Please model this.
Amino acid sequence: MAEIRAFRGVRYNLEKVGDGGRLVSPPYDVIDAKLQQELYDANPSNIVRVIQGKVDPADGEENAVYVRARDSYRDWLEEGVLEADDTPSIYVYTQTFDIHTPEGVKRKSRQGIVALVEIQRLGEGGIYPHEHTMPGPKKDRLELMRHTEAAFGQIFSLFSDPDFHARSLLEPHVQSSPLFAFDDSDGVNHAFWRISDENTVNRVCSFLSTRELFIADGHHRYETAVNHRDERLGDGGEEGAGYCYRMQTLVNMDDAEGMAINPIHRVVTNVSSDDLARLKSGLGKLFETKEIPYTDVDAIGREIASRAEPARPCYGALLGDADTVTLLKLRADVDVAALDKESHSEAWRMLDSGLLQLVLSKILDLGTESLIKGEKVRFIKMEAEVRQAVRDSSQNVGFYLNPVGMKQLRDVVLAGERMPPKSTFFYPKVFTGLVIQDFNLS
Model:
């Protein structure tokens, strides 16, 4: 298993720069131009200037944006905007949030432990990916890491702790007020504590070092960390140095009250009239179908959930008509394994995203590689946007998927497989800037 250890985190000096909520940001990969400007305006020292700085058209050199990121980081350290903790610590990060279910609004609270994790190749050393990733900006993140010699964003991973042992060790330390807390624009409350008590730190890290880790969010960041470590060691670097570890937020996957996995729906684009007819015919052979009027999202969710069975997934589909939902329940006599040319595990085939990938591949000849790359298929988190996409074009077909269960995730990963891309959306996102890993300190 990978070694888990404490580190001297670099944090904002709130006495000098004020409100912590105006200094942090969502992960870099969800920051568009509008949000980038809002974060720039929030505070001159907002972390966005490092992780997703603006590109100046007048930049003469290719790496100017990374040079500015490095300079900002170094300047903030020299000016006391950022300060390193004096002793190795672990950190507790809670997010309290509302989720909307077909039964109503539910309040949840998720606790994460921020610590360093020894870098291992995925699938080795007890660290596992859970889904295929889209081609991502690994080169961009590698350049940022090279220039700053630091890691800013979190990798969000899961571990199993059904007895809540880690939480019981931390509980006395989170009764005090957090270092800082804030509400983000989505109404999520973020709170952050530092734990430096040596006995507690050692016991928590020792326990976590016995756990398998499943990457929930941050596959690209993890793969970048592996590449950076290999690069440094190849240049004569030292085993066990700071770049051989990567800061992660570790969350107990057995904490049902704190976990929220939202589905990511599918829209197949540019479906010709012939292909739509072929799709409807093919779906009718594989699924029991029932058409219902589109009323509201919660009602559709309740209808789908009431019809689903463990071995017979049920979807909602908009087959070229935004006002009619076709409920699709897998027929009892369908041999799903016969659809599977790649011999996936039973756990993979029973995923909504897995079965749908097999079905689309069979009926529309959409190859696995095409689906992984997102060609022909759009991945959409909001149910209303699926309907809007079908309204925008009768050549678009939408599929409403159910959330992946934690047992499903574990079964697929331990079978040595990855889910199809965009199978899970862990909510809420883990923010960047609460603490920084400086490789020269860790």
Observations:
- The first strand starts at residue 4 and ends at 5.
